[in-house]
Amino acid sequence: RQTMYDIIFEADTPAGRWFDIGLLVAILASILFVALETVPDFREPGYARLLDAFTTAEWFLTILFTIEYILRLLCSRHPLRYAFSFWGIIDLLSVVPSYLTFFVGSSSRSLLTLRSIRLLRVFRVLKLWRMMNEADELSYAIWSARNKIIVFLAVVLVAVTISGALMYHVETLLFNVDEVTHVNPDSHFTSIPQSMYWAIVTMTTVGYGDIVPKTSIGKIISAVLILLGYSLIIVPSGFVSAELVGLRTDESQNREQHPCSVCEVTS
Amino acid sequence: RQTMYDIIFEADTPAGRWFDIGLLVAILASILFVALETVPDFREPGYARLLDAFTTAEWFLTILFTIEYILRLLCSRHPLRYAFSFWGIIDLLSVVPSYLTFFVGSSSRSLLTLRSIRLLRVFRVLKLWRMMNEADELSYAIWSARNKIIVFLAVVLVAVTISGALMYHVETLLFNVDEVTHVNPDSHFTSIPQSMYWAIVTMTTVGYGDIVPKTSIGKIISAVLILLGYSLIIVPSGFVSAELVGLRTDESQNREQHPCSVCEVTS
Amino acid sequence: RQTMYDIIFEADTPAGRWFDIGLLVAILASILFVALETVPDFREPGYARLLDAFTTAEWFLTILFTIEYILRLLCSRHPLRYAFSFWGIIDLLSVVPSYLTFFVGSSSRSLLTLRSIRLLRVFRVLKLWRMMNEADELSYAIWSARNKIIVFLAVVLVAVTISGALMYHVETLLFNVDEVTHVNPDSHFTSIPQSMYWAIVTMTTVGYGDIVPKTSIGKIISAVLILLGYSLIIVPSGFVSAELVGLRTDESQNREQHPCSVCEVTS
Amino acid sequence: RQTMYDIIFEADTPAGRWFDIGLLVAILASILFVALETVPDFREPGYARLLDAFTTAEWFLTILFTIEYILRLLCSRHPLRYAFSFWGIIDLLSVVPSYLTFFVGSSSRSLLTLRSIRLLRVFRVLKLWRMMNEADELSYAIWSARNKIIVFLAVVLVAVTISGALMYHVETLLFNVDEVTHVNPDSHFTSIPQSMYWAIVTMTTVGYGDIVPKTSIGKIISAVLILLGYSLIIVPSGFVSAELVGLRTDESQNREQHPCSVCEVTS
Fold it and tell me: How far is CA A30 from the centre of its chain?
């Protein structure tokens, strides 16, 4: 039982490492099959056998994950604590939906939702993080910057609200206004929430282009807002960089550990 | 009165902290209601009761903000100084427009503008910054980099003007030119200001796609401009990073100035 | 003459500073007028008086710049050296085209080009850089990173060529191919240069959306290329950040100048 | 033979440097000709002579590269080791396809693929890296950050899968659903793989706009996902920056290890 525990929960032994790699491949394959099942092309008659193969492979992996879940429960020293931990719930949610499909009509809507819950399996990829110290460093850098991130989100909220309201007025209420409806019928900025969506898509430089300014004044204002918003949105990358640089510098200074310049003893 | 002052203006006491959190929720809810009122769907007959609920909730919050404003005036040591400060004016502007709607006809244009002024309430979110030192650090980093930002904006202005004029010539005046109008009718670059708008949208990597080069030469030139512009626009992120890294290093060096743990002399 | 030299060429005196600010406003206004002249709306009869106002204002500014150019020539100690310097040529090019328009027919194509040359005035904005040391620091950081930038451009060239050719094959030559033309008629990737343009627009995250993959395999490959290209294109921002952080650290270390820990003399 | 070896394989001598620059120009020209051959315009009768010129120039360069390849084989001390090295194979692959075209019918599909293999020549540009130490530094920074990059890719995979599945459900299965097909016919999110492609295009801020949310709930969720995804995707740029800053600091500290200028003792 101890051996099994080492293999399943620890990654220090060669067997544990191979177990982890095998699990990773199984999770990725499973995600792939669940995702491909939703492609409309594969539902056409010509692809029936391929879809069957996907389903079979998916069931094979589900049974594997079930065995793994039971083994984890058996060899864990605190089975209940594992069962109600975050990873335990993820492990359970990644096998239960497949079995529930037996009790649900084959073409109903709830079946589709059940099937998608299996995609939560992708979180198990993160369990393999325990192999790496780097995840801690990253979490620590983000955690150190949490207050800055809250301030930043507050500033983004203000910027998005004000620029959304401004663009809504300029594009929809001020220019080329229809006599009857009192709005510009060509405007893409049909409401303030829509304009705030535009502001987020623009400030993050995603820029889909499904909502763009049409009037000259709107283009001028949005050009200014883009430059301001761009300056704003690059700030958090500076925060994270600064934290990571600081961590790395602290580390290399600790490694140096030079003697005190007065008493010449290395503390 | 002192107790009330502590609760409303300071965030150090538990009561003051809860007051701040309650205020934050009220501001966010109020912004949401004002924004949702502009969605065209909610103006249809079926949603009349929902729209009424929004309006009622919004009035409730307005009265709350009015009471808060009066309390702030009453318990402030310098009521006039508060009333004419930036935050005092924001507080006033976030309640007055609601009351002014009584004096304005119900379907007029000025009503819509009045309603939107209420969105300035979002600035009150920033008042809660006083809880955090991080805002000072961020402001300081941006302030330290101000001269660099001016130089950078000058370079961006030059780049936008020159690339805008260049693309206007290539796309509109040089190729596939119409005999009568002397311009390329398919060109998206209809004028130099329009081309400058394209240059800003492109250099910041937003890239809506509403204005794109159509000629081969235009595509080649814009590919070169994109690479140059991209190199240019990443520079300010380096500035802010460098400032923030510098600040963090200075801080950790100040913290280090501890005496040697053996001879207790600060070297 | 020395006073005039100080005012025009130096920014240390109050008069020189005001001269610089006035010049900046004049340049920006001039750029604005030249750009607005190209907007098609202003060429319609209704806007004739506004267009005349633009032209008059533009002539007034041109005469101002001419006087400034002559003053610079007069009070410079080496007029010829100034005249053939970069800034001298920019100053000359920003006034000469306006006068040349007298010798050119009023509706000809060369007139439009002449007019646009006036936009080179925007470079004069950079002359005001001499007020700031920050420009030197920025130039130095970019200059220090020049070899890295060349390596980076070589890697970008390889990535753009290989992904362009790959996407051209997948999208145009391999799937949904027309029997007669041997190419996919729906493909946006009509040639390798077009695909390379797509690769540049995508890797820099501009993403216009005028050229997008249509086939499933094309989408999968482009998703992988986007992730790889994104990882690649963020590298130079790291270079510039590192240079700027290094510069700032060197500076603050020089300021510290602590005494030698052995002989206690500050070198 | 030693002289020839120095010229071809080393860049330290003036002759070797000129050889490298000549080779660079030849490679770039060759890439240009191969790419331009695929432009449909040049296949029209009017451009027949230009296309011939491209082909001739391309053959001239191919013969040059062949001579270079043979010289490299002749003057290398270990011809076989060179022939089977990465650069040797790239060198071979950049000349062989041109000769193979003699044995393949002139209008067949395999001809097109053969022609494109010549584009692998672009990798030879990287051979000129050996002139520069900077490439090592860059490779080292990326290599140091490899574990972090794997963790990061795992997080991206989770984020892309979960947001893809979420958007697929909201946009396609939950709202405006057709009675017969049980899906929203206007949705762009036709399957989970398609939604994952959208998630990658959005998180990297490329934002083509070919797939955008249409429902209000979809827009709200995607706005939140964009802000989260943006925060996530800027993290690796921080990693690379931190590594590069660390490398530069280590370097400058090593350089500093000079003795005190007064007492000549290295502290």
Answer: 18
